[in-house]
């Protein structure tokens, strides 16, 4: 973390509002901590704090020395100060001509947000800002966090003038932690709760909430029971951190499973622990249900492969022998029907194999491996009954992603293309391109494509809408593909128009 301490020490004593700051060293640490807080709570490529002195902005804290070299008076931060309101700018093509950046500035800025910092007089004295090299704005929760931190900095500046440090931190806790869904509390070394957010207080009946702050909340328990409860607190005070998962019966009658993290910190010469407790009851229930569902899926897959593979193989062989023994005796219709039986048997066998691989991949996260895309495409195409009219083109090059999962995806999408082609000449191109944060794989065909209505249904399959039934030419197999994509935090995009074919792009993160 980079902070321009000389500026704070020499100039921050006198802002344009005439405030006199009385604890410069503490203020330096607070500004540095605010930048750390932003880095931990908000997604972005760079963060900084600018404050005004004699009408000019200076960067007093930033996430990097490179960012500190940017002149805030010739940057979007100046707009935030002049307008005294939030500045949010999206730049699809990066910064174009408006401001000059240092030559060694390596971040391509696609997004900027500046949050003004106000004193209690209403004067805007600077801003806290975030920038990103991605084409995405902050979420509403992140914007709220940034606003809270800006308010927090304004309070710190006020307190620096009025020496009301205790009031500042109490308000800071309220601003910050009352927006948390998790239960947050702070205890002193006597194990008394000195702060609790609304989520924590809601765990107690309304008539008992006045007996939380200033109490251990263990007064009614026996000494033996109290000793068990406070042991984790002792560990946190001794070691600095403590995390535990425990089932707790709360005074409001609810029994919940909580994941609690406790961290030691010091303030005004006193030592405290900050506790953040997340209710994971539903999460554990979902994990158990998912585990049971995955087990059932694996059992079904094993049964299907064991019970159906051999009969399918025998049916396929029988059709072959009938065709061979009756050569010249059957009409073309009968021969076509026997050929269709063979093709269907092959197709069902392939889907059973894919189901087995899919079940294994879905229940056990597969490690990435490095391989040549062309080799894996050729290997996968050998498992598919490709029409003679279909041509496959592929990129050569090394990629690093889960191999079995990619094979399943390719089988599903190529089979889609076979259906789309309806026995007409069709070309499939399987290519890839490497990006900074991952690999994009494109599967394009020249088949019939999707109508707008069909594409809307495909999007439902991708979203995992199990109530939608598959229809011919409408993306059969995409539900399996989308499940695998979600499992590995990848992204799936389908683009298609009638008569122009379909293009499926999968972004696989590094």
Automatic annotation (TrEMBL):
PROSITE patterns: HIS_KIN (PS50109)
Keyword vocabulary terms for this entry: ATP-binding, Kinase, Membrane, Nucleotide-binding, Transferase
GO molecular function: ATP binding; phosphorelay response regulator activity; protein histidine kinase activity; protein kinase activator activity
Pfam families: HATPase_c (PF02518), PAS_4 (PF08448)
InterPro entries: BphY/WalK/GraS-like (IPR050351), HATPase_C_sf (IPR036890), HATPase_dom (IPR003594), His_kinase_dom (IPR005467), PAS (IPR000014), PAS-like_dom_sf (IPR035965), PAS_4 (IPR013656)
Enzyme Commission number(s) from the entry: 2.7.13.3
Spans through the membrane: none
Reactions catalysed according to its record: ATP + protein L-histidine = ADP + protein N-phospho-L-histidine
GO biological processes: osmosensory signaling via phosphorelay pathway
GO CC field: membrane
Keyword Membrane: yes
Annotated Histidine kinase domain residues: 406-510
Domain of life, per lineage: Bacteria
PANTHER family: OSMOLARITY TWO-COMPONENT SYSTEM PROTEIN SSK1, TWO-COMPONENT HISTIDINE KINASE
Name of the protein this chain belongs to: histidine kinase
Organism from which the protein derives: Opacimonas viscosa
